[in-house]
Amino acid sequence: MRSAVMAGLCPGHPRSSAKKDVDARDKRGHDVERLSACRYSGRMSARSALKAKQEPVQSETSSRPAWLLAWYDRHRRRLPWRAAPGEASDPYRVWLSEIMLQQTTVKAVGPYFEKFLARWPDVAALGRASQDDVLRMWAGLGYYSRARNLHACAVAVTREHGGIFPDTEEGLRALPGIGPYTAAAIAAIAFDRRTMPVDGNIERVVSRLYAVEEELPLAKTRIQQLAATLLADTRAGDSAQALMDLGASICTPKKPACSLCPLSEDCTARAKGTQETFPRKASKKSGALRRGAAFVVTRGDELLVRSRPEKGLLGGMTEVPGSDWLAGQDDAAARKHAPGLKGLSRWQRRVGVVTHVFTHFPLELVVYTAKAEARTRAPEGMRWVPIATLAGEALPNVMRKVIAHALDV
Length: 409
Ligand code: SF4
Hints:
This protein has helices at 2-6, 46-54, 64-75, 91-101, 106-119, 123-128, 131-138, 145-160, 169-173, 180-191, 200-209, 220-228, 236-249, 268-272, 331-335, 397-407; strands at residues 20-25, 31-35, 290-299, 302-307, 318-319, 326-327, 348-349, 354-357, 362-371, 382-386. By secondary structure, the protein is an alpha+beta fold. The protein folds into two domains: 1-284, Endonuclease III, domain 1; 290-407, Nucleoside Triphosphate Pyrophosphohydrolase (Alpha-Beta Complex). Helix 3 crosses helix 13, helix 4 crosses helix 5 (106-119) and helix 10 crosses helix 13. Iron/sulfur cluster (SF4) binds at residues 205, 208-209, 250-251, 256, 258, 261, 263-264, 267, 269-270, 275.
C-alpha cells in the first residue's frame, strides 16, 4: 500500500492506468509533468482510505516531507542548473543560478545561465574575468548590483577559498552578494545541509498549507519555522526544490491546481476554500512617479554615452546623458541638463515618453535627439561608441528603450 501511495498510483489499479499529461507547460515555460491518475479523482484516495481504516492516526504532518519527495521524484522540473537524479550538484551552477534568479523568472534566466557557463565554465574562470565583461554579459537581466557582486564573489572564492565554495550557510553568507536566503539555498541544494530556503513560492505554499493569518512581511519568521518542518531527514536539497517546484507549477498564485497537489488532503486553506487569499500581505505603497530627460546625441554612426557612478541604482552601467530622475520634476527643469557640445544641431523632442518600472518607483523619460558634427569631441566623462556595437555595451533595459525610441530601431 505504502509504495503505491508514494508512487502516486491508486492501489489496485495497474500502473498503466495512471494517465500522464507529460510536458504540459506551466506559465513560466517549464516542463511540467502533471498526473491525472485516479488518486486525484473525486473518489476516496489511497491516503484517505488508509486514514479511514486506521483512525485515530498519528499526526499526518510527519508524512508531508515524504509525500513531497515522492511527488518531486516524479514531477521535478528539468532546469539547466539542476543535477540529474542521483548526481551531485555543482556548487558553481547552483550559486550562479541562485544569484541570477533573484527577482527574475526562470524563463528569463535560462539563456543568461547558458551564456555565462559557456564563457566562464567554473568559478575561477569567472574570477579572472573583468567586471566590465561580466556587466556586459549581464546586460538586460536587470538589478545590476547582482552582477557586480557576482564578480566580487567569484574573485573572493578564487583568491580566498582556492576556487571551492564554503559548504556552510555561515561561510557562504560571508561572501559578496550572498544573503540569508541564497546561503540557505546553496547550502541545501549544493551541499545537502539540512536547512530550508524560503522564497516567494515556498512562502505561498506554506502560508496556504497552514493558513497563516499573519501578514507578510511580519509572517516571515513563522513561515520559516513551518517550512522547516517540511524538510526530510535526508535529501534536504530535494525537499527545498520540491517545495519550489510545487509553488511554481501547482500552488500557483492564481487558480492553484489543488487536485494535483501531493499535500492537498492536509492543506488548511484548501479545506476552507480560501487558498487564493494566501499569503496575506500588508498593502504596498508604490513609489511616486519620477520624471527626467534623456539626451541622445549622434555623430555619424556613433552615439554619445557615459557610465553611471559605481554606487547606486544601475551602478557602473552605460547610459546616454540625462537629467536626474526626480518626483515632480517638470520638462523645462529636466531639459536644462542637456550636454553642452560645440556645433550641435537643435534639440528635437521625440513624441511620447519612455516609461520604465523599477522596484521602488515608476519612471517617465522625455527623449531629446541632436546631431553633432564630425570630429566633435565628447564632453568630459563621456565617449562616442559605434551604434553597431551597442549590443556589447552594459546598457540597462531602460536605456535600450530610450535609444530605440530615439533612433526608431
Ligand atoms: S492544496 Fe492547493 S493551496 Fe494547498 S498547498 Fe496544495 S496547491 Fe497549494
